Amino acid sequence: MAKSEKELKIAIMGAKGYPYVYGGYDTLIKELGERLVEKGVHVRVYNHRALFDTRPRYVNGIECIYTPAIESKSFTQLSHTLISMVHACFSDVDVIFVVNSGNGPFGLIARIFGKPTAINVDGLEWLRPKWKGIGSKYFYWASRMATKFYDQIINDSEEMRRVYLEHFGKDSEVIAYGANPRETVDPKHIERWNLESRGYYLIVGRLVPDNNADLIIEGFLTSSSQKKLVVVGDVPFSDPWANRLKSLSDPRLLFTGYVTDPNELAALYSHCYAYFHGHEFGGTNPAMLKALGYGCAILALDTPFNQEMLQNGKHGWYFEKKTESVKGTIENAEKDPDTLDHLRQTAQAGLTQKYNWDFVTKRYLEVFEKLAKK
To answer: What is the predicted pLDDT for the residue at 5?
Structure first.
């Protein structure tokens, strides 16, 4: 392993930790952190202490610091990053990398200490239905603060770059998330749900309003399809909106809850007739990348973000935010199996270089090295 004369030290914070993988940020930290270590970078990840029963100092060459938090639905993540930021500022790290725009105000602490910083601000958090009133106002304000206090803003799509320029007058580096393409997985992994290859549509994501599972389910149930609709995902707390969806009774509807086995999840993607993507307020979405990587025919909500990811219809079809549009898309998909088969065969071609984890790591390292020289 070739190392520079002075080892570059990067602190990463704002997600649940390493090697904990639950969402997009956790995946980014795992894929990026491991590759940076291979390049001779010292990587320190701040882990949410309550999530780790065992707490080794080093895992796969990554230094893990286990910091506490105020355990509450609203303040866990923010308090964890605040404590981690203070710890990092008193250490010898060269650059602090933060994820999540909600952590925007904490860049002021690093600025006071003279620590170079970068933040990945992700999607339009202030528009998500789950953040109403004060929550929405906080995320808009925090995103604005991120543009003032951090040395480098990172967005994961050109559309999000445009949004930050328009709202906050701040340009950003665009570095997408990466993907890990796989060949078709053995269908035996979907047998536990009595599913057949190409016999079902698939939704993957948290059961929250901004992913529009309710719209897709309603459109599906009003269609004439004889296939099933499989909904993978849940919420980690009791929620009336999610509970209402899960209480729907129809023999064509299957809620699996969380699927943690990677081969089962890969098989669910690989063998679906089509993957429905209703995510509305993000940039580069990890679930969509998985769908491309597993060779899915993709039916996506028509948003600027999804248009960018699917190259304006080259790698998927779009539906409008209307029940009738979902219904019509399903019926057209079942009338045209040849086109859907073509989408499956060409899906992985949609994973251009910008979605390659090695390329993503190269881009991040360039940013970190530039910041460290300041």
So the answer is: 58
